[in-house]
């Protein structure tokens, strides 16, 4: 291209060469535009798929019993705050169809007092892993036992997790076989590709 410009400067009357150089320049611009569009589409696709990559890494950590790696994908203070606010707001009502749930223990007018200490106990890495293993954010006896022993009862995550976007910065997921009314875990975006488990939705049916 630079050689074209130099030749045109030396031969201003050569119209045919000027046309060829203009065409070459337009072709280069089109290539640059195509590359830019493809790059943007690839980045957008990677960003959209990033929560599934986070779930894959969480599942891999669970299956490998790498609790430190798993904990790096969880915002524990935010998760505890999400649990506590919903338990207090709903009087500790237990999730539907969960006969093994002990959330009703919070319902006797002392929810606000008990929620903090109990959630501090339950919502460690082992307790949260056991919840994901069972597919719902229900505080069951198995979850409490795992939290106390610091060892999840189940060795592997569910065979399949179902995840859906709830806006740009949140993705809800639960066991693929778990009914929606039993609640969901919420990944919260921390950047273009960064996500952490930071919230739960304990009462999705009541919220609608």
- Give the low-pLDDT segments: 13-18, 92-97
Following the backbone from N to C, one meets helices and strands in this order, namely HHHHHHHEEEEH
The proportion of residues in beta strands is 5-15%
Main structural class: alpha+beta
Number of helices: 8
Shape label = elongated
Instruction: Count the E strands.
Output: 4
Distance between the termini: 62 Å
Percent of residues in helical segments? 40-55%
Spatial order of strands in the largest sheet: 1-2-3-4
Radius of gyration using CA atoms only: 27 Å
Q: Calculate the mean pLDDT score and round it.
A: 76
Sheet with the most strands? 4 strands, antiparallel
Features:
alpha+beta, single chain, 4-stranded antiparallel sheet, 208 residues
Describe it for me?
This protein is of the alpha+beta class and 208 residues long. It is 54% helix and 12% strand. The protein has 8 helices and 4 strands; from the N terminus they run H-H-H-H-H-H-H-E-E-E-E-H. The chain has helices at residues 2-10, 15-63, 67-71, 76-89, 111-122, 125-134, 141-149, 204-207, and strands at residues 161-165, 170-175, 184-189, 195-201. The chain has a 4-stranded antiparallel β-sheet. The radius of gyration is 27 Å and the shape is elongated. Residues 13-18 and 92-97 have low confidence and may be disordered.
Summarize the structure.
This protein is of the alpha+beta class.
Topology:
Elements: H1 2-10, H2 15-63, H3 67-71, H4 76-89, H5 111-122, H6 125-134, H7 141-149, E1 161-165, E2 170-175, E3 184-189, E4 195-201, H8 204-207
Antiparallel strand pairs: 1-2, 2-3, 3-4
Helix pairs in contact: 4-5, 6-7
């Amino acid at each position: 291209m630079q050689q074209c410009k130099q030749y045109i400067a030396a031969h201003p009357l050569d119209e045919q060469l000027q046309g060829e150089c203009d065409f070459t320049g337009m072709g280069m611009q089109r290539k640059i535009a195509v590359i830019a569009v493809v790059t943007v589409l690839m980045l957008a696709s990677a960003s959209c798929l990033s929560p599934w990559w986070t779930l894959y890494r969480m599942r891999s950590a669970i299956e490998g019993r790498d609790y430190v790696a798993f904990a790096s994908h969880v915002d524990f203070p935010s998760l505890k705050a999400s649990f506590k606010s919903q338990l207090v707001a709903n009087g500790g009502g237990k999730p539907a169809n969960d006969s093994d749930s002990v959330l009703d223990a919070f319902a006797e007018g002392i929810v606000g007092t008990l929620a903090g200490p109990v959630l501090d106990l339950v919502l460690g890495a082992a307790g949260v892993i056991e919840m994901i293993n069972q597919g719902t954010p229900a505080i069951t006896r198995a979850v409490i036992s795992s939290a106390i022993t610091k060892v999840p009862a189940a060795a592997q995550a569910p065979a399949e997790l179902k995840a859906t976007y709830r806006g740009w910065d949140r993705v809800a997921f639960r066991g693929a076989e778990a009914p929606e009314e039993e609640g969901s875990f919420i990944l919260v975006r921390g950047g273009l590709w960064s996500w952490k488990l930071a919230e739960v939705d304990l009462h999705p049916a009541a919220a609608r």
